C-alpha cells in the first residue's frame, strides 16, 4: 500500500528503512533519575545480562535495534565473552563501549586534562580496560565522552588543559586495534559550568583531525546550547567525513535525555533530512545511530520501543522528500516551494508505510502494542524479585 502519489520514493524508502539499525544504551534499562530522585520500577534489570534481555525485546518487536552499547564499569562482568554469547543467543550484539570518567573522586579537577600526570595515566588506563572489553565482545567503537571542565574563570589554564588533553587522547588512540574507532563526544555544559574541555563539535573535530582517521565525532542531540541548528553541524561533520555517531534523545532545556523526537519531532526530521541528503543512512556510511536516554518515570522497554519508532518515522519522512522538486526550487530561489518540499514530507503520515515494512519482516505492524500484549513486563515484574536493580550508581 505504498503511497500511490510517490510510488518510487515509497519503494526506495522501504528498502532504506529495511536496513536501518538503531543501537540501544544498556543504561536505559536500569534506573535513572535526576539529582533529586532516582525512581525504581518493578521488573527493572539487575545486571548486564538482564539489560541485554530487555534490549533484545526491543529488537524482537521493532526489528531495527540489533546492537546494545555498554558502559564501563556499570556493565562490568567476569566474562565478557559469555555476555557477548548471551547477546548472540538473543539475536543482538554488543555495540559501542562507553568509558566513564565522571564518577571517580580522582577526576574532580579533570581526568585526561588533569594537571597531575598520574591522574591522566589512570584515565588513559581506564580506556585500555575498555579496549580489552571491545576485544572480548567484538565491539569496534570506543566511545569517550569527556566530562572534564572548570567552574570558575582562572581555575585552570584553558590552553594547558587542551595540550594535556591532546597528549592523553593520543595515548588512548594508540590503544586501538586496526578497524576500531574512537568516538569523541562533546557537551556544552555539565557537570562543569564555566568551561567544558570539549564543549562543542569544533573542539571535538579539531582533536579528531589531530588524532587520525579512526577518530570521529559523536553528536549527542542534548549537548548543545538552546537554539543551536544541530542539522547544520550534522551536514558539516558529514561533509568532512567525521560524523561517527549520534546519541539521540530529546530535551527542553538541559541534557534531559528524554525520548528522541518527543520534544521536537521537526528537528529530528531536519537532522534525518541531512543524513538522507548526504546518503549517510547506508549501513556502511560509518554513522552509528545510537540512543542515549533515561526513562526516569516511564517504563523502559516501551520507552525504547517508542524511541526506535520515532527515529524510523523521522527517517521515513526524510526519505519521502521530493528532492528533485527541492533542488529545483532551491536553484530557482523559490523559498516557499523549497521549504514546502520539506514540510510536505514532514506532514506525511508514514505509519502505513512503516506498518508495511514491519509486516514484510514478519513483525507486528504496531510494535508498541505487540510488546504490551506479550506479557513480558508482567513476567519480569513477577520474576525479577530480590537482588539490586541496576542504576547509574552515582
Ligand atoms: C553524557 C552522556 C554520555 C554518556 C552518558 C550516559 O551526558 O551523554 O554519552 O556516557 O550520557
Ligand atoms: Mn551521550
Automatic annotation (TrEMBL):
| Pfam families, sorted | AP_endonuc_2
Using the record's annotation, list all stretches that form the Xylose isomerase-like TIM barrel domain.
Answer: 81-255
Q: Which InterPro entries match?
A: L-rhamnose_isomerase, Rhamnose_iso-rel, Xyl_isomerase-like_sf, Xyl_isomerase-like_TIM-brl
The keyword Manganese is assigned to this record: yes
Q: Which GO terms describe its molecular function?
A: L-rhamnose isomerase activity; metal ion binding
Basic and acidic residues compositional bias: what residue ranges?
A: 375-385
State the name under which the record lists this protein.
Answer: L-rhamnose isomerase / sugar isomerase
Q: Which Gene3D superfamilies is this protein grouped with?
A: Divalent-metal-dependent TIM barrel enzymes
Q: Which UniProt keywords apply?
A: Isomerase, Manganese, Metal-binding
A GO term (biological process) for this protein? rhamnose catabolic process
Q: Does ATP-binding appear among the keywords? A: no
Annotated spans, Disordered = 374-394
